[in-house]
Hints:
The protein is an all-alpha fold. The protein has 15 helices and no strands.
Amino acid sequence: MTDAGLRHGRASLGLSFGVQGVAFALLVTRIPAIQDQYGISDGLLPVFLAAVPILAGAGSVATEKVVARVRPSVVLRWAQPLVLLALLGVGAGREMWHVAVALGVFGLAVGALDASMNMLGVSLQRAYGRSIMTGFHAAYSLGGIAGATLAWAGARWELSLLSSYLPVVGVLLPAALIGSRWYTEGKSAEGKLPDGTEAGVGAGSESAGGALAFKLLLPLCLIMTFAYIGDSTVSNWSAKYLQDVLGSSEQLATVPYNVYMVTTLLGRAVGDLGVRRFGAVAVVRGGSLLAAGGFAVVAVAPGAWVGMLGFTMLGFGLCVIVPQTFAAAGRMFPGNSDAAVARLNIFNYVGFLVGSPLVGALGDAWSYRGAMLVPMVLVLATLVYARAFGPETARYGGGHERPRTADVG
């Protein structure tokens, strides 16, 4: 694989991450409009919302099987257009079964898309021999900000869902299809890693589908779950918390999630530099401590502006954990990284499903301040499993160490 081919592959994959960020933000930020368009009751809405991550998990499981026969780039090339067309279907339908089918396709395709994108990201990082994974997730965050902004504009101008979605899909769909021409599998022509070792060699890689392999992967699965519990807490409860608990205005209550998105983007934009300089273990530990401190500040905040500081800390802290968890799975199973990433990706959706109901139930039964301590403790638990990111093989850019299989017990 030439240097130009790797650069083109990296750029095209970054585009895919950005497109997915736009599409997902356009869906989740227009949920009230979707509910109104289809007459979905408040009691039925959680069923629709839960179905998407559940089906996404199924899509990730299916992708693990499919990539045993075809390359992840092929899955990604077809999954991304399906996601965009399903989004358009959500906007175009009128009957309840229309939105049910569209969201079902969206969920399955998102699972395949997330899994295959991260598979390609892990393989490209291995070929580069230095940390680039966080940069791909920065592109996703940038797309999320763009999508949320477009959704705000659609709501502000009272556009229908179809009118909001059609021009965006009209631009992104051909861009994604054209960009897919340069998707690159990050293996050299000889099938070797950057240090010259065979791609299929490595402790734990021989049984990626078995009990031993899952035991090795389990710490990363827990970390992924904890990170997404923290993320879903911010996305689902930050506005309510600021307004109902900290007494902010309704307008100010919309700010924390925007702040969280921006700080997530900024943190991911520089995250790879931190990994190259200090190593993945140190960066993940630092991010976990910062995120836990953010939840603590939110829990004890006397007013809205201090609470805003806590949500800012959360963005900078949580942003590095997910991409580095995918990267660690790739190092742990160098000969079977695709299967490891697909398995790990399921726990993205587990955390998303658990986080919001968990905080809501604790808030109703106890207090919302106390409920914020639960994701704090879970994020701190990442420190217990920090060795899953080591030895500090992510110092690729320093020229001292090359990637090797992590020793995870």
